[in-house]
Amino acid sequence: MRNNKGLLSNDFFEKYGILVGLGILVIFFSIKEPRFISSRNILNLLRQISILSLLSGGLTFSMILNEFDLSVGELAGLSGVLTATLLVAGVNFLLTVLIIMIVGLVFGFLNGLIVTKLRILSFIETLAMSTIVLGVNYFITRGKPIYGNFPAGFNAIGRGYLGSVPVPVIIALVILLMGIVLTRKTKIGRYMYAIGGNIIAAKHSGINTDRYRILGLTLSGLCASIGGIVLASRLGSGQPTAGSGFMLECFAAVFIGTAVFGRRIPNILGTCIGVVIIGVLSNGLTMIAVPYYYEYIIKGLVLIGAVSITSFQGIANKT
Q1: Domain residue spans in the chain?
Q2: Contacts 24+ apart (CB under 8 A), 141-148
Q3: Most-buried pick from 104, 122, 203, 281 (CB within 10 A)?
Q4: What is the largest CA-CA distance in the chain?
């Protein structure tokens, strides 16, 4: 039998261990490089993680339902390529954004439809879809970036400011806040968590589980397309492989988020904190001149650590 002190320590570790880790990282990088905590760098860090926030937030919707979407990165890349292609062709800026969002919805819906109707594991189906999307990317671009004179309104999406706050940060905050409200304050969110917790019980409760699984993957596709639009604006071009590096970081952010506040389940707020941790790592390591290849090693270790913490929490609760 554990004493009250032990219980308190375990409870504190479960709920706030990740936040304590984030605080340690901030202190460490601030000591190594004082410019790390400057307002200029903080705004730059937030702008850097805005696209990752959008993609990871979308992935969280599917993972709440225990569905894995491995196509988010490549879909963001395709969205950026299509955005640049349409703008170069003279399509209206706002119409282009609408079309790309519809493209994201369609791909997400297809993922959900195939997973639910053909009974294919989402891990396998979305991995295959990511390969298809990458192939479409290369077909459109022939492997070359798409440049053009883009409208000022489009350029502002990725590089503009509203006051002193970068526009991409505002876009990410709005989408993530909407996600928090949807998952925590609506019937849709309750049903999604019910399905993720026990799909058999959810079915017996009268919930149309296939409908919500499709919805989760569709929302993931939508967020990926929005992230792709912001990415293309920030880069000033459509890059066929621009989204390829996001998949690992997205999953790392979501898994880290499951350990926040001891919830052990995917949630938008936790994912946001996971994204901040990854952003702090990347930004801090860059500022103290750590070779880029070490970043991949450290991020992989962080992902393993986050999953381990979540597993440890589950074992601790059972015992």
Answers
A1: 37-243
A2: 141/81, 141/238, 141/240, 143/240, 144/240, 145/237, 145/238, 145/239, 145/240, 146/81, 146/84, 146/85, 146/88, 146/237, 146/238, 147/84, 147/88, 147/236, 147/237, 148/84, 148/87, 148/88, 148/237
A3: 104
A4: 71
